[in-house]
Design brief:
Helix content: 55-70%
Structural class: mainly alpha
Largest sheet: 3 strands, antiparallel
Strand content: 5-15%
Strand order of the largest sheet: 1-2-3
Radius of gyration: 25 Å
Distance between the termini: 51 Å
Number of strands: 7
Number of helices: 8
Number of domains: 1
C-alpha cells in the first residue's frame, strides 16, 4: 500500500518541480533583456529597468548581446547585418539564375552575404591571405624542387591578387571598423554620463556600461584566427563574451 501511494504521488511531485524550475529559468532570462520600441529600447539589466534612446551604436551592441558570436565578426559583417535587419538596401535582394533566368529571393542570412560587395571583398582577401600563409609555411619547410616550383607559382598568383585588390578592400574594411567602433564608443560614453530623475548618475546604466566594457569592448580587439598577416589587414573584429549565467533575450 505504501509503495502504491508513493508511486501515485511521484508524477505530481515531478510536475511541480518541473514547473518550479521553468519559472526560475524564465525569471533568470528576464534579468537581462533588450527590447526595441519606436525610437527607444527597453533595457533590463540584473532585473532593473531603464529606457534607452535609439542610436546606431546601441544597434551594434544589441545585436552582439542577443547573438553572441562563436568567433569575433568583422565590422563589415556586423554593419551589413544591422542594415539588413533595418530594411536598408545595401545591395541586391534577389539573384537571377544565369541558366534559367528565373529570379530567386534570398533568405535573410544569404541576403546578408550577397548584399555587401565590400564584405565580399574583405572575405575574399581573408581567404587569399590565409592560403598565402599556408603556402609560405610549406615553402619554409624546404620541399623538393617540383613541389617548391608549384608552391612558388601559386604564391605569385596570390601576391598578384593581393596587390591589385588590397587597397580597395582595406579602404572598405577601415571605414566599417571606424564607423562601428566610433558608434559603440559614443554609446558607451553616453551610458557613463547618464543621469536619473534626481540628476544623479544612473546606477542601472552605469552597471550596464561596466558590463559592456568588460565583456564586449575589451574582447573586441584586433583579431584573426588565421595569423598575423590577416590580423594586420583586418583589425576590426567585434564580439561579446558573456559571463556565466548571463543570457540576453529580446
Amino acid at each position: 500500500m505504501k509503495n502504491k501511494l508513493r508511486t501515485s504521488q511521484t508524477p505530481k511531485i515531478t510536475s511541480e518541480r518541473t514547473e518550479s524550475q521553468s519559472r526560475i529559468t524564465h525569471h533568470a532570462s528576464r534579468r537581462y533583456s533588450l527590447r526595441r520600441g519606436l525610437g527607444f529600447w527597453e533595457l533590463t539589466f540584473k532585473g532593473q529597468s531603464a529606457i534607452l534612446k535609439h542610436e546606431q551604436g546601441l544597434s551594434y551592441v544589441a545585436y552582439l548581446l542577443l547573438n553572441p558570436p562563436d568567433e569575433p565578426i568583422h565590422a563589415l559583417d556586423l554593419a551589413t547585418r544591422i542594415a539588413a535587419m533595418n530594411g536598408k538596401h545595401v545591395g541586391m535582394a534577389e539573384i537571377v539564375d544565369p541558366k534559367s533566368g528565373q529570379k530567386a529571393y534570398l533568405e535573410n542570412h544569404a541576403r546578408i552575404q550577397e548584399r555587401s560587395p565590400a564584405l565580399d571583398d574583405a572575405l575574399a582577401m581573408q581567404s587569399v591571405l590565409r592560403q598565402q600563409n599556408r603556402l609560405e609555411d610549406l615553402l619554409e619547410q624546404g620541399p623538393v624542387e617540383p613541389i617548391k616550383e608549384e608552391l612558388e607559382r601559386e604564391l605569385i598568383v596570390l601576391y598578384d591578387y593581393e596587390t591589385k585588390h588590397s587597397g580597395r578592400t582595406r579602404d572598405s574594411a577601415q571605414k566599417a571598423v571606424h564607423a562601428v567602433r566610433t558608434a559603440t564608443k559614443r554609446f558607451h560614453q553616453k551610458l557613463l554620463k547618464a543621469r536619473d530623475a534626481d540628476g544623479q548618475p544612473n546606477p542601472v546604466l552605469l552597471s550596464f556600461a561596466a558590463h559592456l566594457q568588460d565583456y564586449l569592448l575589451l574582447p573586441s580587439t584586433p583579431c584573426s584566427a588565421t595569423g598575423m598577416r590577416v590580423r594586420s589587414e583586418f583589425p576590426g573584429c567585434f564580439t561579446y563574451e558573456p559571463p556565466p549565467g548571463v543570457r540576453w533575450v529580446a
